[in-house]
Design a protein that fits this description.
Layout: E1 5-11, E2 13-14, E3 22-23, H1 25-38, H2 45-52, E4 61-68, H3 72-85, E5 90-93, H4 117-126, E6 129-132, H5 145-163, E7 169-170, H6 179-188, E8 191-197, E9 209-213, H7 220-227, H8 232-249
Parallel strand pairs: 1-4, 1-9, 2-3, 4-5, 5-6, 7-8, 8-9
Helix pairs in contact: 1-3, 1-7, 5-6
Length: about 260
């Protein structure tokens, strides 16, 4: 085994809205219960980075819980379940949409509401971590260096000012970040997660950390098997199918690493 493995789970909405970016509340509760029953520790991104520096020991398998976009249903449906288990997640916020409805490309119909700053501050006091998902939820690879700089710096500053806690971690919208963007992220943040489907290993780039889309693990038996270390074949199948889809949709660029609507 190539050292401790970390499943960085990717969620967006916990609701009955349907689609690849929504997990039904009952399914989400079952996924969290399976983690607790399996005894797999839920750690933070700070724990992961501390382990890389030799300041923290990791179990053979552990889990990090991440949520993109900061939808109101995180507070209503997801957090009560995680709090019951003592799990500490991180939520990535696109700051221009806090307290409003989503307004970026690929949005749901009707658009989903995001949490307001009052709710976010209360959750931060209860142990929820918050990271940046930029200001306006753009494709950073299509922007100038100055525009990227503004999205990274302004979002971090507003989150820190609003909740009074450091904003150390980042998630690029849509999982899109080329080498130049990742280098700039590294100047402002301690880590960055994407949408590349895989487990995080000791050799994983801290500014291109892979995640597990939980849309692929809505079947309870399959999720329990993965937590028990018996999910390699299913994960390999999903990775292969995503590679084929990326090749068909964009044959000129070969295999893409991005996933769904992060």
């Amino acid at each position: 085994m190539p050292g401790p493995l970390v499943d960085i789970l990717m969620y967006h909405s916990v609701s009955n809205r349907g689609g690849a970016t929504a997990i039904a509340p009952a399914v989400f509760a079952a996924q969290m219960a399976a983690i607790a029953e399996a005894g797999v520790p839920v750690i933070t991104l700070d724990d992961l980075l501390a382990a890389r520096e030799g300041r923290h020991d990791l179990a053979p398998r552990s889990v990090i819980l991440t949520f993109d976009d900061g939808f109101q249903d995180f507070a209503d449906a997801a957090w009560p379940v995680m709090a019951k288990h003592g799990f500490r997640p991180i939520v990535y916020l696109p700051t221009a949409f806090v307290g409003r409805a989503e307004g970026w490309r690929g949005i749901a119909d009707p658009p989903r509401a995001l949490m307001g700053w009052g709710t976010i501050r209360a959750l931060a006091k209860e142990g929820v971590a918050f990271g940046s998902h930029t200001v306006h939820h753009p494709d950073l690879t299509a922007m100038t260096a100055a525009e990227v700089e503004a999205e990274l710096v302004r979002s971090r500053a507003e989150i820190e000012n609003r909740i009074g806690q450091p904003c150390r971690h980042f998630a690029p919208p849509y999982g899109l970040a080329n080498a130049g963007v990742r280098a700039r992220i590294a100047e402002s943040y301690h880590s960055s997660v994407g949408t590349r489907l895989d487990e995080a290993a000791p050799a994983s780039d801290p500014f291109d950390l892979p995640r597990i889309e939980m849309f692929y693990f809505t079947d309870p038996a399959r999720w329990r098997a993965h937590l028990a270390g018996r999910g390699a074949a299913w994960l390999a199948l999903r990775k292969g199918l995503r590679a084929i889809k990326a090749r068909v949709s964009n044959p000129w660029q070969g295999l893409a690493s991005g996933g769904g609507g992060a």
